[in-house]
Amino acid sequence: MRIIFILILFFVFSACGSGNKSDDQAFIESLESGDKKTAIDEELISGILQQIPSPLEISLMLKESGNKYNSDFLNSPDNYGKYNTNYKKALNLGVYGTDLGYTNIYEKNADGIKYLSKIKSMADELNIGQYFDIQTIGRLAANSRNLDSLLMMTTKNFNTINSYLQTQGRSNLSVLLLTGGWVEAMNIVCNVASMGVDHPELRETIGEQKIVLEQIILLFSFFQDSDENMASLLKDLKELETAFKEVNITYTYKESSVEIVNGVAVVKDNSTTTITITKQDIENIKNVTGSIRTKIIS
Amino acid sequence: MKSIMAFIFVILFGISSTSLIGQCDSENYTNNCIPKLAEGFNYLKSYKIDGEGGSKTKVEYSYVFTKGTQYMINICATGENTDGIVVSLFDQNRNKVASSKINNQFVSALAYPCNATGIYYIQYTFDGSAQHCGGSALGFKK
After folding, report:
1. How far apart are CA A93 and CA A99, in angstroms?
2. A263–B108 CB contact, under 8 Å
3. Are A215 and B64 in contact (CB < 8 Å)?
4. From A117, B4, B101, B129, which residue has the greatest number of CB atoms within 10 Å?
């Protein structure tokens, strides 16, 4: 009995001791090897990735402002076979994600289903297919009454994929996925604008993407030395930044007020932004966006 | 000797249970929060709120809010209340836009009809929180 007792004590204390030692050692080793810098960068990248708005916001704005659905704006699901590298797959997973969201918003479920299978295939090839629940999404897509659940489920799946990639130290793929999605949304909104649709909200939506582009360029800067493809795309994105150069966003802060309505704190926002963007700016932005998008989807 | 052995097992069991209880399952709270977004709002993001048992005083995220869009941020924690979790919104220059604690009253959701596009900081703090653990969802509508 005494031996068992001693063994238990030895096991308990040695286990506790080795755990602490291991953590301390890992910390010292990480400092020596420069891993701490990488860890800080990953956290920073994750924080910036969180900021990038969902392409669904643009699709919903287009629908709410009366623009008709146009499948010609989208990347054909038939292009799927062209994407043979992880770089292309991640970018076009984002592109197809935006296209799926666009079809969902407009309740064009027959078109949406075509994207679903390609998204699932590309996600499988990137080893993230387990986070894309094609069965549930497919079932929801089959019934137009399920629009809210469909949008929620699709967004949730893409968010999970992004979180997973970041926890696995594959945030480069997460950056590509979000960038592909953003470029596709930009291409759609620029195409709508070029069709003679001219209303302030549309112009402002294009102009305010300058803020998002700045964040995307910042994200790419982390990978420009380690990834040739991303360095090349960064050059293109900087060209797009030049096209946005004359766009001005003026922010004026005024204190807001809040009141409780039915248990919800409702804010009255008194701040404003004024976005100055010309037709020529839109034309330039459209052309550069189209050229970047062609490189991505071809 | 038997009583000493029993004592050791009780201590070991206690240590493992405490560490399990101390863990924050914020994912569970975020999943519960998504369906609680008010009708008409489309889900955008989930935010985990893990105050690590009180060692963290705030948890912060950021997002680009767009003029002309209405956003809603809700909070889920143990039970029906917010367990002292407060969400505050700051603009790109760190000016405070709003908070879910109004006149000492904690509310579980903040609706923000955005009038100025920019990067906003969504900050969660703990005001008398027992668990320092929760989840939150962000939704939008036009």
Report:
1. 10
2. yes
3. yes
4. B129
